[in-house]
Amino acid sequence: MPPLALYNSLTRKKEAFEPIDPAHVRLYACGPTVYSYAHIGNARMAVVFDLLVRLLKGQYGKVTYASNITDVDDKIIAAAAESGEPIEVITRRYARIYNEDMAALGVHMPDIQPWATGHIQEMIHLAGSLIDRGHAYVAEGHVMFHVPSFPAYGGLSGRSREDQVAGARIEVAPYKRDPADFVLWKPSSEDQPGWDSPWGFGRPGWHIECSAMAERHLGLPFDIHGGGADLKFPHHENEIAQSCCAHGRSDLNFFARVWVHNGFVTVDGEKMSKSLGNFTLVHDLLPRWPGEVLRLALLSGHYRQPLDWTDSLLNQSRAILDGLYRTLYAIDDVEADDTGVAPDVLRSLLDDLNTAAALTFMQSHSRAVLSANGADKRRIKSELLAAGRLIGILQADPAQWLGYGSGNVQVDKLLSERDEARRSRNFKRADDIRDQLLAQGIAIEDTPNGAKWRKI
Known about the structure:
This protein has 456 residues and is an alpha/beta fold. It has helices spanning 40-59, 74-83, 87-104, 120-132, 161-167, 206-218, 232-246, 282-285, 291-299, 311-330, 343-350, 355-369, 374-391, 398-402, 409-423, 427-439, and strands spanning 5-8, 13-16, 25-29, 63-67, 136-139, 142-145, 182-187, 202-204, 222-228, 256-262, 265-267, 270-271, 307-309, 442-447, 450-455. The strands form five sheets. It has a four-stranded parallel β-sheet, sandwiched between helices. Strands 5-6-7-8 form a four-stranded antiparallel β-sheet. The protein starts with a strand and ends with a strand. The mean pLDDT is 93.
């Protein structure tokens, strides 16, 4: 079996993954800012990294995955001011909902989920180190990172000096020495959250949070860092600059060796926007779609490519799952064993998480199992289930997923009446019963073992 290969955003090429310590792989992904519900783009990152962690845990003895919660941010402050609720109430509520929604998509909790407010001292220490090394300065109560002090800045995103200034998240302030400089620490008013620091009462800038939390929990350097493509610049670029400069390093891979970024999610071909009314929240989708459907939709295309979120994508993902579950239902009497994932499925996933190819192979095996002999049928079923566990699908009971039921006295009585009508060749009455049940959301399937019903 070939080794895991990942596209490294830092080197801009696909590379064989070589862990720093094969006995302990460490990775970090930027988590949510908890002031509202997570959208489907947030979920794509969570699902992609969940799959990557599952794959790594199958290849290496120990894997530590950290993904943070940002609970101090200007958006959170604004949400508290608008609602009148304390910040802690808002952040705890939406962190809980985020974790519940991701769990519904089959996303396992990270091994470590650090909260920003629990690491303020680490951030203050990091900012102080940058000042001491000449990479940061104090101006009007702000601590600013001086971008020109790090000539390697821009190495991750490949942005030119002009693009760096144009794409900077913070507007040019009069106290900046350079337009590209960014905030490490900023002052807080009495009605804003804040902490005492050598530069006055204030709070951290956004970028310094992940640098401090990643170093605290994973050490430097660690193996893999990433998140959505929108974070590549300036957030991840700034993380590299902070962490390298705080330790007197100029090599960009000192912070993290491999950078993994998933592509953007659009909705019906357009960027998600509240003004367009297409801001798609996971919390709103879950009452209408099973979590496995949403997960499969997010994994249906290659993670690095843009993904267009449409009803067609959801319906197609549901149809794929239905087909796989029908196969498992048809071979329910075949006992599975501990056979691992089919080699072609695993080989696809090891090739930079090629989920589309892996799903194609799973569907092919699903068709093959029905005509296989006893021993092959057991092996193929076992491989299908193992692939499902790795990808995070096929975790439901097939009969329940497909809606097959029993024990409903009214439905069973009508089925018996329909069977009698068919035996007596009263096909009109049999069709009337079928239509009556269909109007109630119940479909009848005639099998060699008699009629079965399922909810639709």
